[in-house]
Design brief:
331 residues; alpha+beta; 9 strands; 53% helix; globular; four-stranded mixed beta sheet
Length: 331
Amino acid sequence: MDFQLSDDQRALRAGVRDLLAGRFGRDRMRAALDAGTDVDRGMWGELGAAGFFALRLPEAAGGVGLGLPESVLLLEAAGRVLLPGPLVATQLAAGAVKGAAEGGSVVAVLDEGRPVAHLGAADALISLAGEAVRVLEGDALRTLVRDARPVRSLDPLTPLHRVTAPAALGDPVPGADGAGLRLEGALLTAAEQLGSAARTTDMAVQHARERKQFGAPIGSFQAVKHLCAQMLVRAELARTAVYAAAVTADPAEIAGAKLLADEAAVRNARDCLQVHGGMGFTWEADVHLHLKRAWLRAGQWLTAAEAEELLAADLGRCRGAECRRAPSASW
């Protein structure tokens, strides 16, 4: 199987990276951090106009008509720059919530009693209760937000709230599959983790080249070389798993991809901090932001324990039989 990107996919990735570099560079990210702005409505609208949220909607429904692999490329680019907001939930809800596809609505997700991210900025909430998918909007959502309790978040750009209402709220979405939506959410979150892991690798290598001790770049020291090499291996291993899962859409492969991407994002951020030394612990450095976001994403959509259970169940089904899966689509 050839996982090389097509020319169109390379162009898509380059386009979204250019968009984010121009509209959400480091200065913009830091300004959002200082202001506590978790969702920039102007930026959200620009993403919608660029097709970020409507990427997987059929062209007949006003979408772009692309697939899960292309969504992975977009979310990977967003993860590199720490773009805040419920990007995954809004893209998944593009066909069910009015305005979501165009970037006019911000959509959060309530799943299995987990804290809700970006609830205060949400225009709609998709709630997952078992296999059902429901949408909560209007007065019912405002009531839920009013009664929600804020909880401390690891990431300063991802506010969290605990809601006491049951997940079985709102209007059901016909034909929607809660289990499938969770898996897609897990894969797209893994793509964000992949982007962060790749970015912290670049940050560590750049700093190792520029920072000098004893008259030589610290990148010339064997211990630092090993750290950077291990970071690259983790990121590329996660990339392979995430890209493969995007092609097959197999639940076990998505679970494996989420595990590897979570590990790569968290451990690479920690190693990047180690390469930066004392300055890595300061507020001015961006390393801690990648680490905090990676910790938080690791608990979203599919936790490590849940992914391991899914993989164990898949292995149990395969015991004593030959397990071969044909890819459902080409990259």
